[in-house]
Amino acid sequence: MAVDRLIMLHLPSFVDVLYELRTRHPETFDKVEIYVDGGFRRGTDVLKAICLGAKACGFGRSFLYANAAYGEAGVTKTIQVLRAEITNAMQQIGVTSLAQCTPEMVKYMERAIDPPRPSDYSQV
Asked: Average pLDDT for residues 69-89, to the nearest whole number?
């Protein structure tokens, strides 16, 4: 039997996971360093993760695309753009250092609508 479709699950974003961890188990951040990867597209994403307690963020796709399209110059430009976005966002929230970032700086809003669920007919 061959699989002829892919069922996409609506997984929580890194912000959802970090917020839940911060809310339910804040002591975790004192015991281990949290590194997050997946779903980062902009410098503001990095700043949100840092505010919520992450020590570092992993990027993959942005650099792969930049490298594939423009080589080393593309990767360098991607770094410059991310740095500028992070700096701009830091200025907007009034911090001069990542060490000044706190969870209270992130306004977390619960989803008003749950993501769509697969129908009973979509089972493989």
From this structure: 97
